[in-house]
């Protein structure tokens, strides 16, 4: 990847490029106990104060529920033409299934209508981690019936918003919520172990394809995608055991979900015997088809690469990370390595799958400790991160990768899951005591970049 940063211009990405910001319901909306919404796993997971740093809860968050008009004006003022939001399942169906909450349906109509009024193209994500708690009581993603429940939710959303929304994203980062939520237990619902992980993986790969088929059937001219988190996996040394450990992590983090979606089935490497673990021994061919959907676009969410070494003590993968801090390489305040060349290679790798037709960068961003001085947030490190990563997108695009858009994560500081409210990724600073919004210099940088 080459070419200098100084020449980065939004127009180089083409006339119809989608420039957006992304948010998620549980991280932004608040109004968690209001207007008929049922609790989600994140409301319950955060209740006892032990699971979230600083005892943060998503109950109020950025109060986007009440402030969406002003917040969308901000999106517009910063020069974006697209807006990615997610729908809270338990706002639409408080029990996850059963009765529809009309107030919930109306809320997203208002948000979508406002986007359309402001000429912001809405991209709607159907599942961004906030499973209705009532469904978790029945096993959540580990229960086979999740697919029935999820299909109903999607059907309700498609019927409600299909005439207004063209762009649909089925799932947000399946590896993140299955591994953190159902294997390591550090995210909601806090379940652990491979006996929870593998069923949740298999029901998720079914959900992403079946959900897409429902949208295809119910929404004429829909543009359908789903997102994946990708991290380049780099072996710590050229020792065989490190290379093999890196390959195991790569299978789980980068291939486990996209390959079934693209019609390739689960990765077949001996290491995990994945098809056996998913109990697919004899019926495999049928499942390969069931897990496959011809997606219009693939959403890439990229934050960092990982360096991996062999570690016999870690169950399943027998691998562990060599942290960016230890390696003394540039990193964000999340401890995530900053490496835009790795982003470029990741985009090229995903593009090398024959079945990938179009790519949208559906998330990319960084957390740095911001300081407000005289009302100004000079987040030069974040600006730098965006510039480098946009350069990577442009380099890949110029080499023929069909990239249609880029969504910055995220509009404003919000509820960063287990990290609570301290890890701020926004272009706009939020004072969570007063809900005051202050545009950071990175927000102004985007405004100037997009208007030039
Ligand atoms: C990916 C997730 O989709 C989003 O919800 C999260 O806030 C960002 N990564 C940053 O960690």
Describe the protein's architecture and organization.
The protein is of the alpha/beta class and 452 residues long. The chain has one domain: TIM Barrel (Alpha-Beta Barrel), CATH 3.20.20. The protein is 38% helix and 16% strand. The chain is built from 17 helices and 15 strands. The strands form four sheets. It has an eight-stranded parallel β-barrel with strand order 1-2-3-4-5-7-10-13, surrounded by five helices. β11 and β12 form a beta hairpin. α3 packs parallel to α5, α7 runs parallel beside α9 and α15 runs parallel beside α16. The longest helix has 25 residues. The radius of gyration is 21 Å and the shape is globular. The structure holds 1-deoxynojirimycin. 1-deoxynojirimycin (NOJ) binds next to loops.
């Amino acid at each position: 990847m080459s070419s200098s940063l100084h020449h980065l211009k939004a127009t180089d990405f083409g006339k119809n490029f989608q420039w957006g910001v992304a948010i998620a319901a549980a991280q932004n909306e608040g109004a968690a106990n209001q207007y008929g919404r049922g609790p989600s796993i994140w409301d319950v997971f955060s209740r006892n104060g032990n699971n979230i740093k600083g005892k943060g809860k998503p109950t109020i968050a950025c109060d986007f529920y009440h402030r969406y008009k002003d917040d969308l004006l901000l999106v517009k003022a910063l020069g974006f033409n697209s807006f990615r939001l997610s729908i809270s399942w338990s706002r639409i169906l408080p029990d996850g299934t059963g009765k529809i909450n009309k107030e919930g349906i109306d809320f997203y109509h208002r948000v979508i209508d406002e986007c359309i009024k402001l000429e912001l193209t809405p991209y709607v994500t159907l599942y961004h981690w906030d499973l209705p708690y009532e469904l978790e009581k029945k096993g959540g993603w580990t229960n086979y019936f999740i697919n029935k429940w999820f299909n109903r939710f999607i059907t309700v959303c498609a019927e409600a918003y299909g005439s207004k929304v063209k762009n649909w994203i089925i799932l947000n980062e399946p590896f993140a919520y299955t591994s953190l939520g159902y294997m390591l237990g550090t995210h909601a619902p806090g379940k652990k172990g491979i006996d929870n992980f593998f069923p949740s993986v298999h029901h998720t790969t079914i959900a992403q394809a079946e959900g897409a088929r429902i949208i295809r059937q119910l929404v004429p001219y829909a543009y359908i995608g789903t997102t994946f988190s990708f991290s380049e996996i780099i072996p710590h040394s050229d020792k065989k055991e490190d290379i093999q450990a890196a390959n195991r992590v790569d299978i789980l983090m980068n291939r486990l979900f996209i390959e079934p979606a693209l019609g390739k089935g689960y990765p077949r490497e001996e290491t995990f015997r994945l098809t056996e673990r998913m109990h697919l021994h004899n019926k495999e061919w049928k499942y390969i088809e069931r897990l496959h959907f011809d997606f219009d676009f693939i959403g890439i969410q990229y934050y960092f690469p990982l360096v991996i070494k062999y570690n016999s003590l870690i169950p399943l993968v027998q691998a562990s990370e060599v942290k960016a801090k230890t390696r003394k390489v540039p990193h964000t305040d999340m401890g995530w390595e900053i490496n835009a060349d790795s982003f470029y290679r990741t985009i090229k790798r995903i593009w090398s799958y024959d079945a990938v037709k179009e790519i949208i960068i559906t998330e990319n961003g960084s957390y740095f400790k911001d300081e407000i001085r005289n009302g100004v947030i000079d987040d030069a490190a974040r600006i730098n991160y965006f510039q480098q990563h946009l350069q990577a997108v442009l380099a890949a695009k110029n080499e023929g990768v069909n990239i249609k858009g880029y969504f910055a994560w995220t509009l404003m500081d919000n509820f960063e899951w287990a990290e609570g409210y301290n890890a701020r990724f926004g272009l706009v600073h939020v004072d969570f005591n007063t809900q005051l919004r202050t545009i950071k210099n990175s927000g102004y940088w985007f405004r100037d970049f997009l208007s030039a």
